[in-house]
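Q: Given only this backbone (145 positions), what sequence would you predict?
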């Protein structure tokens, strides 16, 4: 079942590129490229690691989890409104890519069971159990056009 969903996502991304629809947005900020996928999906900690591994096989860039500090760079004091009317404390470039509840994994672990997440809908961060499903923004140390 998981393989069928994965293949479907790849096919959707392929169709989006053919039609000229942006499948993700990238931003160069403070020496990192941030990538936010348009087709947001939730992952457990382990699923997110597997996704990043697959992404690294499909591209020539080395993607990874951002640290909590790196995700904090995307937070804004005042929220921005996206096209759906949702408000998020994230830089304008990514606001239209945000799901309604926008908790994103960081690489910063609290312990073996939990990791820090940033909640862009509320503008704060907290620890979540690694078995819960959260969203993912990936970063690369390379500048990607």
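A: Predicted residues:
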């Amino acid at each position: 079942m998981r393989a069928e969903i994965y293949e479907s996502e790849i096919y959707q991304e392929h169709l989006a590129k053919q039609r000229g629809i942006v499948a993700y947005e990238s931003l160069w900020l403070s020496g990192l490229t941030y990538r936010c996928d348009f087709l947001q999906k939730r992952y457990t900690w382990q699923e997110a690691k597997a996704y990043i591994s697959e992404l690294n096989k499909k591209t020539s860039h080395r993607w990874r989890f951002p640290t909590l500090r790196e995700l904090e760079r995307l937070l804004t004091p005042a929220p921005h409104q996206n096209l759906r009317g949702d408000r998020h404390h994230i830089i304008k470039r990514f606001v239209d890519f945000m799901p309604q509840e926008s908790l994103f994994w960081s690489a910063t672990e609290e312990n073996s069971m939990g990791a820090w997440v940033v909640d862009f809908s509320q503008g704060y961060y907290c620890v979540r159990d690694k078995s819960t499903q959260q969203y993912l923004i990936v970063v690369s140390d390379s500048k990607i056009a």
